[in-house]
Structures
1.
Amino acid sequence: MADIISDANTRVSWVSSIASIAAPTVAELNAGILLHSIMTADGLVGFRPETADIPNTKLDSDFNTVDVGRTNLSGTMLRFFKQDGTDTIYDTLLKGTAGYVVIRRSVAAATAWTAAQKVQVYPSKCGETAWLDPEENTDERYEVPIKVTSKPNLRATVAA
C-alpha cells in the first residue's frame, strides 16, 4: 500500500441543502459552491474531531483507565483569499447562513462528485467574516468561522 498525498487531493464545498447527510446526492453536491480553489493552503481549519475521555478508574485499581466520551469540534473555520470583482463565496458565507460543509479527501480535487465516493458532511452555520491582519508579501485573506450545528456524518457515501 502506498501513502496518499494530500496536495491537490481535497475537495471542499458549501452546499445549501442536503436531504440525507449520510447519502448526499451528486445533484445536491453539484448545486453547491466549490471552495477549495480560493482557500489558503492551511484554510481548512479545525475539521478534526476530538473525543473526550471519561475517567473510569476504580479505587482498587493500580492503572488509570478511561472510556470514550463525547466528540467535539472546535475552532472550525474556512480561510480564503479575497477575490476582486464578484466574490461569490464572500457574498454567500454571511453570518447566520446555514448549510453544509462537505469535504472529500484522497481523490483529486478536480475530480467531479460521483456516486460511492466517501465524504464528510458538516451541518453548519457561518459566523462573522474576519479579515486577517495585513502582512507584507501576501494576498488579502479572510476567515469564516463555521459553527457545526448538529452531529456531522464523517463517513457519508455519495448517492447517485
Note: The two ends are 29 Å apart (CA to CA).
2.
Amino acid sequence: VEGKRCVDSANDLWKKVKIDFVYKSSDFNSPGHNEMETDIIICWIHDWEDCPVEVLELRSAIQLLDGSSPF
C-alpha cells in the first residue's frame, strides 16, 4: 500500500511511504516481503526486536486512543 506521512505540519509537507501489512512483524521476514520496498510495517503484534523497517503496532496504538477520535 502507498500512503502519505506528514513530515512538516507547519508547512503542510507530506512524503510518500510504502506500507506493508502483516499480523506479526516477524511475518515480514517470510517470502514476498521486501525491506528495500517498504518504509513502514503495520501489524497487530510487534514481535521482531531487530526488525530493519519501522513498525507501527496497532495493538499498542489503539491503547493510546482517549475516546476523542471519531473512529
Note: The first helix runs from residue 58 to 63.
3.
Amino acid sequence: MKQIAAIIAALTIIGVIAGGSLSLVNNWAAPKIAINLKAETERAIFLVHPDGKRYEEIKKAGFEVYKVFNEKDSLLGYSLVYEGNGFQGKIKLMIGLTEDLNKTTSIEILEQSETPGLGTKILEPPYKDQYNGLDVNPAIKLVKGIEPSSPNEVQSITGATISSRAVVAIVNEGIAKLKSIENKGALK
C-alpha cells in the first residue's frame, strides 16, 4: 500500500512539474508566435499585391480581409485569408483580388500539411502561377488531363487532384463570401 502511494505521489509531482513547465513555455512563446504570424500575413499581402505599399484590415467582414493600396494611396484590391480542408488537413491561403473582385492577382499558401512530393506541389510556381490574373466570374473550374481553355480554369496536379480541388474550392468559397459582404456594403 505504501509503495502504491509513493508511486502515485511521484507521478503527481512529475505531472505538476511537466504541466507547469509546459504552461511557462506556452506563455513565453505565444506572443512570439503571434508576432511571426502577423509578419507572415503581412508578407503574403504584399506577395499577392506586389505594387501594394500599405493595407487596412476590414474589421466588419467577419473574417480576415485587407484593402491594399498603392503608393498614390489608391485601392489596388483585396487580400483575403481563407482556409479549408485539403487531403491531409487544413490549407490556409492568401488570395489576392482586383478592386472589382473579378480577377485574382495571385495566391500564396500560408499553411498546409499535404503529402510531400505530391500535394505539396500546390506550393510550386507551375500550379500557383495559374491563379495570376485568373477570372473568377464564373467560379474557378478545375480541369484534369487537359490544358485550361477558359480564363477561369486551372489545371489539376497529376497525382494530387484532391489537393488541387481543395485549393480551387477554398478560393471559390472565399471569393463568394467576400462578394456577399460586398453586397451588404461591408467593404466600404
Note: The mean pLDDT is 87.
